[in-house]
Design a protein that fits this description.
heterodimer; A: alpha+beta; Nuclear Transport Factor 2, Chain: A; B: about 120 residues; alpha+beta; ADP-ribosylation fold; 6-stranded antiparallel β-sheet; 3 helices; 6 strands
């Protein structure tokens, strides 16, 4: 008796059910694909987020980011010369970078240490930059986001053994490997 | 211009924005022009005197710093008297996050800021 091995007649695509996959034979991107994608992506992304089951850690991070976004709103309300010594206004871009760095830091740390990073102090500096600072019995971490440095933030961290570390944090790919050492 | 001895004290005004809930933050240590502006206690005897020298003193707090640990960060402490302020002293050197965090460890509250910023 011959054994016939049939190949499966389906393929696994990784577009999660959002329309035809570019892997289909004969598929071609429409000419206006990029333009439409730019317009459509935020909508389906919001839809997906609204209908996706979040893990407890994701929910905690989401709430912490929302709280920080709300708290940092007051920084934008500071007028020119808010300190009476010529302070510069805080720009929306700087605030957005600060929130972005905060969110990435939360996503980089082990879930068991997440609670240590949820409530930093966020303050404005006279030069228009923003400080995000964590202080706990285990460690201190200070990140400065400055409009004068559009591609990276600067940080300094010290633990309770007086071991410290400093350096830049690229906005597009911040290296937070030190965080688990710091909070661990 | 005089030499500022290591054991002397400097006063620094702090805006309430830089001390939320009375908790001093590293953002209080900032440069204005060539460095951080402070008042030398020799010519500005009290923290209240330092506060009164602010353009908008309402709401500001004042912290004190001893000169020697500031120099050991290391930062340069130089007497730079102004026409209306003989006590004016400049703390020069880049205010990186590390330097500001170290200044924060050296600072002592003399006058707590009021909650409402004087903007």
């Amino acid at each position: 008796m011959d054994i016939i091995v049939k190949k499966p007649r389906f393929e696994v695509h990784t577009n999660y059910g959002f329309g035809a996959s570019p892997k289909h034979k004969g598929f071609e991107f429409p000419d206006d694909y990029r333009e439409k994608r730019r317009k459509v992506a935020p909508v389906w992304l919001r839809h997906r987020r609204a209908h996706t089951q979040h893990s407890p850690a994701e929910k905690i991070i989401e709430n912490a980011v929302a709280t920080m976004t709300e708290q940092s709103h007051s920084l934008l309300a500071l007028p020119e010369d808010w300190d009476g010594e010529g302070a510069v206004r805080i720009a929306e871009d700087t605030r957005a970078q600060a929130i972005g760095i905060f969110e990435r830091a939360l996503n980089a740390v082990a879930v068991s240490s997440l609670s240590l990073l949820l409530s930093p102090r966020i303050t404005a500096m006279a030069d228009g930059s923003i400080d995000v600072r964590w202080k706990s019995p285990k460690f201190t971490l200070l990140i400065n986001i400055s409009p004068q440095s559009p591609s990276e933030a600067k940080f300094y961290a010290v633990n309770n053994n007086r071991q410290d570390i400093r350096g830049p944090l690229k906005f597009d790919a911040p290296d937070f490997r030190f965080l688990n050492w710091l909070v661990g | 211009m005089e030499h500022v001895p290591n054991e002397d004290v400097l006063f620094l005004r702090v805006h309430p924005q830089n001390a939320p809930n009375g908790e001093l933050q590293a953002s209080a240590f900032k440069d204005i022009g060539p460095g951080m502006s402070t008042n030398w206690q020799k010519y500005c005897p009290t923290a209240a005197d330092s506060k009164s020298l602010a353009a908008k003193p309402k709401g500001h707090g004042v912290v004190s710093l001893v000169v020697e640990p500031v120099r050991s960060i290391p930062l340069a402490v130089t007497h730079t008297p102004a026409k209306k302020d003989r006590s004016h002293t400049t703390v020069a050197g880049e205010k990186t996050p590390e330097v500001r965090e170290k200044l924060l460890q050296q600072a002592t509250w003399e006058i707590l800021p009021e909650d409402k910023p004087s903007t």
